[in-house]
Structure formats: structure tokens, C-alpha cells
Specification:
Blueprint lengths: L3 H6 L1 H9 L4 H43 L5 H34 L18 E6 L12 H7 L3 E2 L1 H6 L6 E2 L1 H20 L3 E3 L4 E3 H4 L6 H5 L9 E3 L4 H6 L5 E3 L5 E10 L18 E11 L4 H18 L4 E5 L11 E9 L4 E10 L3 H6 L2 E4 L4 E4 L1 E9 H11 L7 E2 L13 E2 L27
Parallel strand pairs: 4-8, 7-13
Antiparallel strand pairs: 1-10, 2-3, 5-6, 8-9, 9-15, 10-11, 11-12, 12-15, 13-14, 16-17
The structure holds one RNA strand of 88 nucleotides.
RNA sequence: GCAGAGGUGGCCCAGCCUGGUUACGGCGAGAGGUUGCUAACCUCUUGGGGGAAACCCCACGGGAGUUCAAAUCUCCCCCUCUGCGCCA
């Protein structure tokens, strides 16, 4: 969230930055916040005064009692005060709830370098690498090929878990892990600390890391408990430092979080029923950095480069685009997406998302560092970038490394993580047998796929 | 899951039974002072908020309650430690 002090001191500057997003709702929220904040400060002053008075009288009562004199008059005077204080407190609490609600929804200030644009079609390409291949054969859909090779099972996953789930089998499961290992090793070499975070977070901690709408649209809630399944390791990595003050020497802190990620994907079209592109559960290695404000532009470039180097190591053609004003989310002040080439569709699609969040997350987290020179606490900056989201990447790999024989070539850099396996192909002697069930535990739901 | 003991400032700890001016003391850190030394010593600062300031308010794991007044009494919740139980 934004610093309320900044909003009080420079409302015009903040408002004009927010207006770049071309969203009247945001400006309405902002104006309401300004007005309610004034009311809050007035009431708070008034109550502080009443409390002060009450405290004084209480002390007088104590004094007079000690002297053995009657305190009836003072008691009468004192008794009137708590009621008025309570009345004001109700309104103050209302205002605080509303103001926090508003503050949590008002997005981050945009970096001046963010280009103006209405939506994702106006993002600005910043870099392209590699030559998109022109296969001489028709590229098979990644899910279809995985199924044919017997390394993925979608039907049974859909039956027992629901649409948007899948089983990875044999070499493809191994490939998923190999990708994670490659990503992890590259990051460890760059000084990142590997972290396996908790997969559940309590709401209070979670609110510090995401926009509120995500609770409805993205996160799975655990029934009967105040916990949510994480949507990315970014969240527990950040929440770990809730209310934390770093010493200046501790910064920067660079983490490589590895976890399964769970997303409801409500309202998103095209949930992928026979593939890995948009699913409810996937594995991801995430980069997360805490640093001093002056250093964040440097780390922003560094974590972007890490992901680009991973794609280069895997020989996947990609392009990096600078996200425009209309396509920016709530949290980031500047963002790049890195997009991999799809030979099947002949276009780039999103693989990674690299954000500089400035001090926006740090404000919610209340994550600061002690400036050694001034001995004052300042908010840190946070940055994050996908190193690899395996499922999304599996699609990319299966398409780009597909041969005309219908096998999948394993990129050389992954051989050592694949027990030296160089391709994924159909075992010659073995036909792939689908798993079948003798009984029908889910009557009437034999298959929800009708093609 | 059961039982017991706990949670107090950046860290350690007293206060709680018996409610009452300013939450005791130590350590660490920062600023200043003193001194033939970077040692020792002395003073101040070291949670959050409001206010131009003087100053005021809040904060003893979180929340609610009782009271003129709550670290202290009551209730609910969270977490830690020890023992038992269960468990990959």
C-alpha cells in the first residue's frame, strides 16, 4: 500500500500518477480516502483529549482516596467520559476499516518509464532473443503429445480432482523436477538462498502480499480454518518478514522459493483441460529480493536477466516486453513479462513476470531497515520474478523440442538432471494402457470430455 | 490431541497473587561529554500514532469484557517450551 504520509503531504502528485491508469474508480477511492483521513484525524484528536482528561481525573481520584477524602464528585465527572470516548471509538474504528480498505485497493505509483497504453496489446517489446523455428511438420498440441507418449493423464485427474488438474507420469514428471533443479542451481550460483516455504498462510499474513480481490478469485481457502493455499512462493517469502527490521548489512537478501502453487483461476477463460498452460496447481521457482531503495533498479535488471539466461540455456526463443499502464497490476511500479515462443500458434506467450514493487509491499509488510547513517528506519524495496513455472514451461518445451517423429528432445543442459535421458519417446514394446476403474465411484461422471 | 509452564521495549528479565503517579533492572546499538588511547566512566536517545509546536494519546502475544482507572481481574483466540499420545 501507499504511504499515508506521502498522500497527506503530496496529494496532487499521487493523484496525477494514479490518473495515468485511466481508471475513475481508483480516483474516487483516492478522494474518499483523503476526506475520510481528515475526519479520522479530527476524531482522533478529540478522543486523545478526552482520554487525557480521563487519565488526569483517574489520578486525582487515586490521590484524593489516599488522603482519605470522599471522591463522589470526581467519580461522577469521570463516569461521563468513557461513554463519549466509546461513541467516538465506534466511528474511528469504522473510518479505520474503510481507510485501510481503500488504501489496500489503491494501486502502487507507476514508474515514469511505464509506457502509456490501454491494454496488453500496447506493451512495448524491449528485447527479443533467438530465432523462432519454422517446423516442417504440424506441431502437435503439447497436452495431446504428452498423452500419446504416456507421460500425462488428464482424464483421470479431471475425474478425481476436477478440471484444471493433471497427472505427470514418468519422464515428464522427471522433466518437471529437472527444470526446477536447473533453475535452482542457476540461482544458487548467483547467491540466492533456496527456500521451501509453507504452502498455507494465515489470512492476516496473506493480506500483506496480495491485492484483496485475489482472495475471491485466486486463493483456495481451507475450510474451517483461517488459512489459504499459497498461489506462489512469493507470498510466504515476503510474509516471513512481516514486521521485520533488517540491519543495513543484511541487505540485500535474495531468495529462491520453490513450491507448488495453487490457483482457482475464477473468471479466467480457457482453463486448460488437456494441457498445462492454465491449471489449478503447478510448481514454480520464484526469485524474491529485499533491498535498499537505491538498489532496486539494479536488482530489477538482475532478476530479469536471470530468467532470460535460463531461457537461453534451454534454447527457447523469447521476447521481453515492458508492461504498459493499462496492463499493470496493483502491486508493481514497473513490470516486464518474458514471453516464450509457441511454434504451434506462431506467437509469444507469457512465461515469466518480473516486478519491481518499490516500497508498496514493504508498507503492508511493515518491513524496514535501519539506516546506519541516520539511525532511522526506512522501508525496504521488494522485487520478484518467476525463474520457472514448470507447467507453463512444459508446454513451451514440448512445442519447441518436438520432432517430426513425435518425440520430445531434452535440452542438453537438462541431461544431467534427467539421468542422461536425451529424449522422451514412446517405449517401443509397450502400448500405453489407460488406467481404468472396475467400478464407477462417480456415477454419471465417467468423463466430462466429449470431443 | 491431553496436561503443565510461559509470551513484557532490538535482546534478556522484574512487576501480575493484593488494579492506581513515570513498566524495574541488565545487555546491545546510536548521539554527545570527559580523558595523554579504539579502554574505562558520565549524560541522553533507542515501539506506534496525532500535532507547526508545546504536548497528548496508544502499546506488556491478539481480541472482547469489568472499572473512574487494567501488564495486573474475567472470557475467547493465537503462538512457544516441557512431558505424554499420535505420526511420514
Amino acid at each position: 500500500m501507499l504511504d499515508i504520509h506521502l498522500i497527506r503531504e503530496k496529494p496532487d502528485v499521487v493523484r496525477s500518477n494514479l490518473s495515468r491508469r485511466q481508471d475513475d474508480q481508483i480516483l474516487e477511492w483516492f478522494d474518499e480516502l483523503i476526506q475520510k483521513d481528515v475526519e479520522w484525524r479530527q476524531l482522533k484528536s478529540e478522543n486523545d483529549f478526552l482520554r487525557s482528561k480521563r487519565n488526569t481525573i483517574s489520578q486525582q481520584i487515586n490521590q484524593v482516596k489516599k488522603e482519605g477524602k470522599p471522591v463522589d464528585d470526581l467519580l461522577k465527572e469521570a463516569k461521563a467520559l468513557p461513554e463519549k470516548i466509546k461513541q467516538n471509538d465506534v466511528r474511528i474504528a469504522e473510518l479505520e476499516t474503510r481507510n485501510r480498505w481503500l488504501l489496500l485497493r489503491i494501486p502502487n505509483l507507476l514508474d515514469p518509464a511505464v509506457p502509456y497504453g490501454k491494454d496488453s496489446s500496447e506493451n512495448v517489446p524491449a528485447k527479443t532473443w533467438g530465432k523462432p523455428p519454422k517446423p516442417s511438420f504440424e506441431v502437435i498440441h503439447h497436452g495431446e503429445l504428452a498423452k500419446r507418449l504416456g507421460v500425462a493423464d488428464f482424464e483421470n485427474a479431471v475425474s478425481v480432482a476436477g478440471s484444471g488438474f493433471f497427472y505427470l507420469l514418468g519422464d515428464l514428471a522427471l522433466l518437471d523436477m529437472a527444470l526446477q533443479r536447473l533453475a535452482i542451481d542457476m540461482l544458487i550460483k548467483k547467491g540466492f538462498v533456496l527456500v521451501q516455504p509453507p504452502y498455507l498462510l494465515k489470512r492476516e499474513a496473506y493480506e500483506t502480499m496480495v491485492s484483496l480481490s485475489d482472495f475471491e478469485e485466486v486463493m483456495y481457502k481451507i475450510e474451517g480454518s483461517d488459512q489459504y493455499l499459497i498461489a506462489t512462493a512469493e507470498h510466504p517469502l515476503g510474509a516471513r518478514f512481516l514486521n521485520h527490521t533488517f540491519s543495513e548489512d543484511d541487505l540485500p537478501q535474495k531468495f529462491a522459493g520453490v513450491s507448488a502453487c495453487f490457483r482457482k483461476e475464477i473468471g479466467k477463460h480457457g482453463l486448460d483441460e488437456r494441457g498445462f498452460f492454465r491449471v489449478h496447481q503447478f510448481n514454480k521457482v520464484e526469485q524474491f529480493v529485499f533491498c535498499k531503495p537505491a538498489d532496486s533498479p539494479v536488482f530489477f535488471e538482475a532478476i530479469r536477466k536471470n530468467s532470460e539466461e535460463l531461457l537461453e540455456a534451454l534454447e527457447i526463443p523469447y521476447r521481453t516486453v515492458l508492461i504498459c499502464t493499462g496492463d499493470m497490476g496493483v502491486i508493481a511500479s514497473k513490470k516486464f513479462d518474458i514471453e516464450g515462443w509457441s511454434p504451434r500458434e506462431g506467437k509469444y506467450f507469457e512465461l515469466m513476470s518480473c516486478s519491481n514493487c518499490g516500497d508498496y509491499q514493504a508498507h503492508r509488510l511493515n518491513a524496514k531497515f535501519l539506516n546506519a547513517k541516520t539511525n532511522e528506519k526506512e522501508f525496504v524495496h521488494t522485487l520478484n520474478n518467476t525463474m520457472i513455472a514448470t507447467t507453463r514451461f512444459l508446454r513451451c518445451l514440448i512445442e519447441n523440442c518436438q520432432t517430426k517423429d513425435g518425440t520430445i528432445r531434452v535440452p542438453k543442459v537438462l541431461w544431467k538432471y534427467m539421468n542422461n535421458k536425451k529424449e522422451i519417446s514412446l517405449p517401443k514394446a509397450k502400448a500405453v494402457k489407460p488406467v481404468s476403474r472396475a467400478s464407477k465411484p462417480f456415477a454419471g461422471k465417467k468423463s466430462i470430455h466429449k470431443r
